Amino acid sequence: MKTLTSALLAGAVALSLAGQAPAQTVRIGLINTYSGPMASNGDQIEKAVNLFMKSGQCKLPAGVKLEIIKRDDTGINPETAKRLAQELIVRDRVQMLAGVVWTPNALAIAPLATEAKVPFVIFNAGTAMITTLSPYIARTSFTLWQSSYPLGAWAAKRFKTAYVAVSDFGPGHDAQEAFTRAFTEGGGKVIGTVRMPPPTSDFAPFLQRVKDAKPEALFVFVPAGKSATAFMKGFGDLGLGQAGIKLIGPGDIVTDEELPNMGDVPIGVITMFHYSAAGDRPANKAFVAAYQKEYGPNAWPNFISVGAWDGMQAICDVVAAQNGKIDPDKTMLLLRGWKNPNSPRGPIEIDPRTRDIIQNEYIRETRKVGGILKNVELETIPMVKDPWKEYNVK
Amino acid sequence: MDAFLASLVSIGFHGLAYGMILYVISVGLSVTMGLMGFVNLAHGVFAMAGGYLMYSLMTRLGLPWLPALALACLLVAAGSMALERLLYARLYAAGELPQVLFTIGLIFVAVAVARIAYGPLPLAAPLPDFLSGQVELGSRSFPTYRVGVIVAAGIIIAALWFGLERTRWGAMVRAAVDNRAMAQSVGIDTGRLFTTTFALGSGLAALGGALGADLIAMTPTYPFEQLVYFLIVVAIGGLGTLRGPFLGALLIGIGDTACKYWVPQFGAFFIYAATMALLLWRPQGLLGRAQ
Question: 0.80 cut: is pTM over it?
Answer without folding.
Answer: yes
